[in-house]
Amino acid sequence: MSLTSICTEYRLDCSSGPKQTSNRTTVMTLHDTR
After folding, report:
1. In which residue ranges of the chain is pLDDT below 50?
2. Is 25 exposed, middle or buried (0-12, 13-18, 19+ CB in 10 A)?
3. CB–CB of 6/27 below 8 Å?
């Protein structure tokens, strides 16, 4: 799964780039509970 698809699926702001590290952790957690 690419970060882009994660951004799309969770409506995250992909333009934030590397600053999104903490968000990505949250997303991974959310995805893991699905």
Report:
1. 18, 20
2. exposed
3. yes
